[in-house]
Amino acid sequence: MAEAVGVGAILYFDLSHQPTTDIIFDWEKIFVLEGNSGPYLQYTYARTQSVLAKAQSSKLKAQIAGDINLQPEEIAILRTIYKFPEIVQSAAEAFSPNLLANFLFDLAQKYNLFYQKHPILKPQRRGSLAETQKIREFRLALTAATSQILKNGLTLLGIATLEKM
């Protein structure tokens, strides 16, 4: 695990900068677990996997009810996820992996804010038990989608994803 985090940190540091700019190498910035770093993204992915494992997410419903009042943080994540294909295409066409790296950092920040503000496995009851269950299912699906985007993006950058950290 330490090797995967170390290699991921260096790769991310390199790929997160514009190809045409000079890089100032700083060991402390590379390995920080908070902020724009490879370990931060790997940790966020591991966090999503932990939530899904606790929920035994293989039993997620394929359809999510459309009558849920979404929180601003949930909407922000959905809007970000929606942009993933466009970002990948832009990064490839411009030979600028930093576009993808910055996108992943933005998604990780939004997910971590959501994670801190809104219980996923045991959402606060709003109305009936069925409504609370719908919120839980939606939040688990949002976590699964975030996890998949992080995994796909990190894989494209050549950075290992870790189930646990």
List the helices and strands and how they pair.
Layout lengths: L1 H14 L11 H4 L7 H18 L16 H11 L1 H10 L3 H21 L11 H28 L9
Helix pairs in contact: 3-6, 3-7, 4-6, 4-7, 5-6, 6-7
Pfam families: DALR_1
EC number: 6.1.1.19
Catalytic activity: tRNA(Arg) + L-arginine + ATP = L-arginyl-tRNA(Arg) + AMP + diphosphate
Walkthrough of the structure:
The protein has 165 residues and is mainly alpha-helical. The protein has one domain (2-156): Isoleucyl-tRNA Synthetase, Domain 1, CATH 1.10.730. Helices cover 64% and strands 0% of the residues. It has helices spanning 2-15, 27-30, 38-55, 72-82, 84-93, 97-117, 129-156. The longest helix has 28 residues, at 129-156. The mean pLDDT is 85.
